[in-house]
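Researcher: I'd like a structural prediction for the single chain below. Treat it as a standalone chain; there are no partners to consider.
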Amino acid sequence: MFRSILLLPVLVMICSTSGRAWAQETAAERFHTLLDDEWDRTMRESPTWASALGDLRFNDRWPDMSGEALEASHAADRRALDRLHAIPIDELSPTDRINYRLFEREYELKVEAFPFRWWLIPLNQRGGIQDAGSTADSLRFDRVRHYEDWLARMRAFPVYMDQTLALMREGAEAGIMHPQIILARIPAQIRRQIVDDPEQHLFYKPFRSFPDDIADKDRQRLRNAARQVIAEQIVPAYRKMLTFFEDEYQPAGLEQVGVWQLPRGDELYRLRCRQFTTTDLTPQEIHEIGLSEVARIRAEMEKIVEEVGFEGTFAEFLDMLRTDPKFYYDDPNELLEAYQAVCKKIDPQLVKLFRKLPRIPYGVEAIPQHIAPDTTTAYYRPPAADGTRAGTYFVNLFRPEVRPKYEIEVLSVHEAVPGHHLQIALAMELDDLPEFRRYGGYTAFIEGWALYSEGLGGELGLYRDPYSRFGQLTYEMWRAVRLVVDTGIHESRWTRQQAIDFFAENTAKTLHDIENEIDRYIAWPGQALAYKIGQLRIQELRMRAEQELGEAFDIREFHDIVLRNGAVTLGVLEDQVDAWLEEKLR
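Model: Treating it as a single chain, here is the predicted structure.
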């Protein structure tokens, strides 16, 4: 009683002082405090991402996937929006007004999406807890402490697994899960984690080599501990997962494809269209844009068929590209060397189109073998925020006989430079941007830029061979097809086979790639729409600038304007280009 009475005035004084301090801060100070607080929470709630960025404060833990933690995060998102809306936007600088708009949009979408409970689907064929050991590939291991942190994560893994399985069980009961065609790919991925020899496990990979300054006694101690944890905790957790997956989860999978089957699935898909395209386009509008682009690109492709003198139908030409051995390598090492050679060819040409290039380099590596059969042709991993890891362009060497030579140039432009690496690395080097913009972004901009970059290949000295030009058109067609099949599957209730057939009729992609791609769209509704929508907007802005500036148009200056603020929504990008044009035309 005495302690409570004594502390009450103190607490009142502290709260009053805090309130006065908040009121006395400028709008900018309050805004940046909010951004700092929310970034810190993001890192705390996403510890593996934090570690990959070089923030090691949470290096010994996994995300908390419990229902309580997810609800708490949702409540915190709502409080963050309340704090944001208490800040008068008209008192902020022009730069912070952009930050405000982007932060507000991000959090409003998170709050709007939460009731759909997509988080009850915590994995798919392209990633999830069945591949958790690969987390180590993006982490630092140059001190004993880093290995100790990884061991702590390993010891915490059974709890992480139990939380994930609980979400999946709840999802199955609610009918919020993937179709069986997607789930069928996952048991083999789980089985790869059930090994007799702990040293063959993905989780053991960091312990296979150590920096020279780590003592032998520490190496042996860490290796012994890793073998024990893998044998006693990691492998049993995966055995539990496999039993649950095959006995309970997979049989409950949806029989048809399309998010329309989920509770309020049509609403969810419209939300994801807005989220990924950063526009208010409806699924039907996107579908029509896709059909128009397919027709336009098809006409360009048929011109090349005529140019090379092929005698036969368009379908026969595509079949020839898919089956003629001259378009493929037999040896995966030769395929990797071809990718590396193209990148070396592109790098010195970039100064023709760009004034500013990123300081941090990138490398070309093979996609890890354990995921290569079920993933896409290539992908990009950004560099570490602290500069300790370069960017990485990963290429798929699984079955090189289905990886055509004519797509190497266009794929490298997209994933490396001037596509993902150039854009993302430059954004990470923008020290004046808040962290949520430097390390986050918007798919429509990021992927739209990479697809736009494919069109720059000719200006960089690529696509000299007609088949390489056809490869570039095939990749553009691929993204146009996405607009049609993604909306077809999730809005118009297409079957998987309908989507595969439409894809195969219009591109030279191999059937293996097509099936992987269609399954990606099934499992990740809406994401694939961002590429073409983003590219079209950037192309429109360039055409507007060329028309309005005439001979004064400088492609290098235009690219600087597009890239100088990192990844933004398409609406913000258009505002930035319009402001630049207005200034140039004064």
